[in-house]
Amino acid sequence: MKKIYETPFRHYPLEDAQSLEPLLAAIGDARFVLLGEASHGTSEYYTWRTAISKRLIQEKGFNFIAVEGDWPDSYLVNRYIKGYPEGSNSVQKLLQHFNRWPTWMWGNWEVAALVEWLKEHNETQQLGKKAGFYGLDVYSLWESLDEILTYLEKRDPDLIESARKAFKCFEPFNNDPEEYARSVAFVPEDCEYEVLELLNRIRAKASAFEQDAEAHFNTEQNALVTVNAEKYYRAMVRGGSSSWNVRDEHMMETLNRLMDFHGPDCKAIIWEHNTHIGDARFTDMARSSMVNVGQLVREQHSRENCFLVGFGSYKGSVIAGKNWGAPMQKMDVPEAETGSWEHYLHQISEMDKLILSSDIRHIPELQDPIGHRAIGVVYNPKTERFGNYVPSVIPERYDAFMFLDETEAVHPILTQVAGNTPPDMYPWTF
């Protein structure tokens, strides 16, 4: 087969933020820009996504960044950068709230730099124009229940009883989602009714809360998290693709809620792993009936209205764990497998580069699936060729791709894990 790197196609050097002009032009008027990563532990993925996000916020008026993180922890960041009176006065302490394993995903100095920039940017903006920061993920069942209880205890004696009823239903499982999932997998007694009732009652009383609409949105979102987290943990025990789909459908539902909350003209930046933002229909995920955020946002908001950017590198280092819940460590990332997407891009040149899908759709070899590296929070460099390459039709999975020839590990903020590790989703540990 003819080598891809022997087929000339246009690519753009990546050197600094000004190198992003071709990408910004290609994004155009899209309202959804999804920025991926090939691992959860690579410094350059965070710094380049920050550079893109800054320009989108400053030059194109994007309203918020939504990340593959828990809602309660991310909402603390949102309050901090918007200057609400409560909260931490230290970005390091703030990001240590991300104490669910893997803590390094959002508790790192690269994210700290983004958070401080957002806070500084927002100081010059009116409240309705301040850029936000939100979490899309579904894992925080107990944390979200705690947030609801704290909020309602001060504001609504009627609703607090529904919240306590939901909390009491989960008490026997000791804050352990796996224990809950195992206990209810094969019996009809579960906590689904309690969390649904709580969500419906909170929604019904929306107009009764104070003028801080974002605080009420936060409470309602925590209630939604409890509903979908309960559903997710039950589905997880049954296996298959259902729990993955519950998770990504929850992230899409949260994104749509944020868009509705911010108004008809708002624009969103989404930070997630490539496996979430790259359209699943153009990978082998489709054979397992798996969907993801990239697919759903295209289906629900039209392909022309969203722009998907994948990331990858040829070699370097990464922060990951040897197994689920293991201590983080810095690992070498070997040179990409021969014949993979990353290998071909390295063969073209060792220069960091931007590739627009519109420039490579004419290449016949890229109309068939090609291996594309994906590193999760669990990683073993010695065996990556057996499970870390996702067959992908690259020009359809993404609208653009940022290739960084050699990358280094992210720089974690040391945080003690709170013992609330989410259940192992191996092999889909993204």
Structural class: alpha/beta
What does the largest sheet look like? Answer: 9 strands, mixed
Q: Element order, helices and strands? A: EHEHEHHHEHHHHHHEHHEEHEEEHE
**CATH topology annotation of the largest domain:** EreA/ChaN-like  fold
**Distance between the ends:** 32 Å
User: Could you estimate the helical fraction of the residues in percent?
Assistant: 40-55%
- Radius of gyration (CA) equals 21 Å
CATH class membership of the largest domain: Alpha Beta
Shape: globular
Total domains, how many? 2
Low-confidence stretches: none
Q: Could you report the average pLDDT, rounded to the nearest whole number?
A: 91
The CATH architecture assignment of the largest domain turns out to be 3-Layer(aba) Sandwich
Q: How is this structure best described in words?
A:
With 430 residues, this protein is α/β, with parallel strands linked by helices. The protein folds into two domains: 4-135 and 267-407, EreA/ChaN-like  fold (3-Layer(aba) Sandwich); 141-241, no CATH class. It contains 15 helices and eleven strands. The strands form two sheets. Strands 1, 2, 3, 4, 5, 6, 7, 8 and 11 form a nine-stranded mixed sheet that branches. It has a two-stranded antiparallel sheet with strand order 9-10. Helix 6 runs antiparallel to helix 7 (157-170), helix 7 (157-170) runs antiparallel to helix 9 (192-204) and helix 8 packs across helix 10 (213-238). The longest helix has 26 residues, at 213-238. The model has no long low-confidence stretch (mean pLDDT 91). This is Erythromycin esterase family protein. Pfam families: Erythro_esteras. It comes from Adhaeribacter terrigena.
